[in-house]
Structure formats: C-alpha cells, structure tokens
Request: fold
Amino acid sequence: MTSYGDDAAVREILTDTGDTWAVVGLSTNTARAAYGVARVLQRYGKRIVPVHPKAETVLGEQGYASLAEIPFPVDVVDVFVNSALAGEVADQAVAVGAKAVWFQLGVTDEAAYERTRRAGLAMVMDRCPAIEIPRLG
Reply:
C-alpha cells in the first residue's frame, strides 16, 4: 500500500504549518469522530474552525458553511467527509490558500492528493491527527 503522507509530512503539518485548522464535516454531534479529533487538536493548542452545511458553533468556535466563507486564513484543512466528496474539498483548500490538507482515516483520493501536492500544499491521507499528535512528544 502506498503511504500518502510520510512521518515527516505528518510532523511538518502538526508542528510547523500553523495552528488554524478548518475541520470539514465537524458538527455538534459528539458521537462523530470529527468532534473527538477537534477536541484533541484544541487540547494541543490548535484553533479549530468548524465547516459544515449547518454552520454550527462547535467547541466554542463559530462554524462556517464552507471553506470559502471563513473570513480569515486557515493553515490546515482537516477533511472528515466521504472519499467521493473529499477531492472537491481539497480543491477548495487550494483555492482559499490553505498550507496543508489532511484526509482522515479511511478518506482517500489519489487524484486529489496529486493535484494538491502539485499546487504546493503539504498533504496527508488516511491518517488521524489525534493519533499522530501525541506521538510527537
């Protein structure tokens, strides 16, 4: 299996890319993985920005319906949507000037990975920042 985002890319995104993370698919549903991961990111000092069609406030942060509606720069776009939709989100991340894209566990799109890397962004696919960040110690 091809690794999309080696340990160096994981470390770079988590430590050097910036602390504003747009979490696409994050809602107030505490049972969803996105909620738990966003909470972990906050614990490690990241500012999370919920991106969900409902634009709900989650974990104390104002939500937005799309990446394009966020009125400030985001560093990393963390993608919790179905693989079939993820490529479009990656393209939106490029369009809004994000520095990196992170596809969660189980989210893969090889073509989107190639496009995003060609656009100059760091990218990790099929990994979880909540699992990776404590390993950086």
User: Anything to note?
Assistant: The chain has a mean pLDDT of 94. The helical segments are 7-16, 33-43, 83-95, 110-118, 129-132. Residues 25 and 81 are 6 Å apart (CA to CA).
